[in-house]
Amino acid sequence: MVLSGIDCYFRFSRSDASQPKAVSPYQRKTPNTLIHMVSKVTDGVKVTVLTEYQPDYSNPGQDHFVFTYKILIENHSEHTVKLLRRHWLIYDANGTVREVEGAGIVGLQPILEPGDVHDYVSGCNLRTDLGKMAGTYLMERVLDGRQFRVIIPAFSLVAPYRMN
């Protein structure tokens, strides 16, 4: 799919608890960056992912490509939930698959009451300019201890010049 020449944008509205307003899943910020957005709802918990290539921290000549991703977790359920663990599968264009598991996210195990939103930013290094990530969060209902997995939708990690 060729996306060159697309001009659109993504806005966050932190003043209200509503979901982010997206005009399009793609945004070209500068000639060197491309933002991609995907979202998925599982058991009333919505996960939205925005990715961005980081040319200032990448070195293509050394097969070093840096991407950041911002995750927005929205609790649309009627239950207070706690994020316990994360599980990631990270793929690059060479066929390499890395698996990452651990407690919480960026050192936290956030608790989200109904209507709450939690966001964080993290990053990923690849040896290719094209890859993808997907995963799950293990969450728990605070009241009854019921655990469930929330899907983190698969998202692309793409250096913008690959889109032309």
UniProtKB/TrEMBL annotation:
Location of the ApaG domain: 39-164
PROSITE patterns per the UniProt record, alphabetical: APAG
Pfam families for the chain: DUF525
Domain of life: Bacteria
GO terms (BP aspect): error-free translesion synthesis
PANTHER family according to UniProt: F-BOX ONLY PROTEIN 3, POLYMERASE DELTA-INTERACTING PROTEIN 2
UniProt cross-references to NCBIfam families, sorted A to Z: PRK05461.1
Name of this protein: ApaG protein
Species per Swiss-Prot/TrEMBL record: Dyadobacter psychrophilus
Organism placement in taxonomy: Bacteria, Pseudomonadati, Bacteroidota, Cytophagia, Cytophagales
